[in-house]
């Protein structure tokens, strides 16, 4: 299976920088993975993981304005190494933690035109280039962004300039948000052509809507394939998944990501690794052939899944 987001023969695994661009994140054990959280140390750490990704064959990288200095780290690395890769970024959240892991608030969401107009040039400056993808960060129906004519008109301008415009989704209403986005038009044309959504063995509820988007010609990027660490060795693993891992001699993160990669509508599946070792374990997914019927149904009710995710601590 080829992806419209990737060069020929590139693996469909990408790297997301949510855990690499800021000292605090909600992945289980994230704080233990970063021994030095100064800006310079984290840049060097991010570049090491990015080098591992490149050596693994990864050619898709995902950032966002709210991922601390992720865009800056990524842009600097691409220039320093002379690499060419597909890059996605997102607007709509502002990072406000001031490089603290104990901040009361880490990011503030705003899907208005002022935020878009402020963050687009920031992304260009930090990356040193135009991103291939530019997404509304965690679009939901309740923010009204899909009804905001001024925002949609500006996104349509970016789409007409050659940027793949789209949205990322979050929460138990992912499918409803995506289906509404599929109906958006500006002067008779839908400016959106990409969606990034959470899909994993615990939260597969957006699957049918993602298949619908894929059938409509959209590119589909999967995030949170290991459920922020809940489908790794850092959490209690469902017995059926543990059995499959034993049979394949593979870690649960690799099996979980292989499940996402097996979805026919998935163009890119993101690793959210914080270390090179985690990324190498994640990349084992590319080698696995799994009978997922042996896993049974591991899905949680969407509201239960997202309530648990909301309770994960920044660390």
From TrEMBL:
<dbReference type="InterPro" id="IPR023210">
    <property type="entry name" value="NADP_OxRdtase_dom"/>
</dbReference>
<protein>
    <submittedName>
        <fullName>Aldo/keto reductase</fullName>
    </submittedName>
</protein>
<dbReference type="Pfam" id="PF00248">
    <property type="entry name" value="Aldo_ket_red"/>
</dbReference>
<dbReference type="InterPro" id="IPR036812">
    <property type="entry name" value="NAD(P)_OxRdtase_dom_sf"/>
</dbReference>
<feature type="domain" description="NADP-dependent oxidoreductase">
    <location>
        <begin position="43"/>
        <end position="291"/>
    </location>
</feature>
<dbReference type="InterPro" id="IPR053135">
    <property type="entry name" value="AKR2_Oxidoreductase"/>
</dbReference>
